[in-house]
């Protein structure tokens, strides 16, 4: 019965370790040219054929990319995935897409599953429940290429792609103030997320620069990110019940903006009572009944850049140590009465 030649057979014949043989066949930087020639010549002599499944186990060259996002129904994430896939398909890679539903435990489960399927790399944005990153640090340390986009992790040194959150919120808050708004509330996602910190930072700095104190009572966190409607409605009720109730509200999340609009409508709050600006990539936002100015992230472009960065890690023969965080501008669209 025919038994195909294996890596182990080559290693025994040449008195090398299987890992050395594997790296030589993959042309990695840490194997000498002499050893590479020895291994490749012998592999040709014995008609060695790599097993695609085994090759995936050894080299993680499955031509598959894992994409992990909190919510596939979120317009921003679906547009970013389209950007990722536009580059992946062109380069011959398949995508495996999973959503965490903003659950920390689901995030761990999904990432472990993808790693066990030997994806070549991960593009990920964090769930709102995640406060520690051991699972990702272990994957990164083991050599799995990872690129973060949108919600990033500062503790892991790799490529990252983000919106210019601070500047966008600074500009939008400044414009609200220049249009006469003084009691500007801020509705944010989970407080530990990078996007929450950056967006609140832009809001607070704009208030300070315009000589208006940012009151803590005007900042509300909705850790569910808008998926729990009651949480959002309660936050709006609390804001409107303040002695100095807000004359404008800044909503720092895509799905959160939609939940806020629903709450405002259900609570009977008129558009002339409360100006609203929120992050939103919903294509039909101009058709919504309640007027809303909005910040639109360039999600498709962010996805394309994320995939391009991941390919740099996957396909390089040498380790990358100098990573960058790419900051992408966002576009602000104002309702007519608040326009510049």
Task: Sum this structure up briefly.
The protein is built from twelve helices and twelve strands.
Describe the structure.
It is a single chain. This protein has helices at residues 7-14, 18-25, 33-45, 52-59, 75-90, 104-116, 134-141, 165-178, 194-209, 229-240, 254-266, 299-315, and strands at residues 64-69, 94-99, 121-124, 146-149, 160-163, 184-188, 219-221, 248-251, 275-279, 293-296, 325-328, 331-333. The radius of gyration is 25 Å and the shape is elongated. 43% of the residues lie in helices and 15% in strands. The protein has three domains: 7-59, 434 Repressor (Amino-terminal Domain); 64-163 and 299-329, 3-Layer(aba) Sandwich (Rossmann fold); 165-296 and 332-338, Response regulator (Rossmann fold, 3-Layer(aba) Sandwich). The strands form two sheets. Strands 2-1-3-4-5-11 form a six-stranded parallel sheet, sandwiched between helices. A six-stranded mixed sheet has the order 7-6-8-9-10-12. Residues 55-60 have low confidence and may be disordered. It is an alpha/beta fold and 340 residues long. The protein has twelve helices and twelve strands. It starts with 6 loop residues before the first helix and ends in a 7-residue tail after the last strand. This is LacI family DNA-binding transcriptional regulator.
Structural class: alpha/beta
Largest sheet: 6 strands, parallel
Mean pLDDT: 90
Strand portion, in percent? 15-25%
Poorly predicted spans: 55-60
Overall CATH class of the largest domain: Alpha Beta
| Oligomeric state | single chain
Instruction: Give the strand tally.
Output: 12
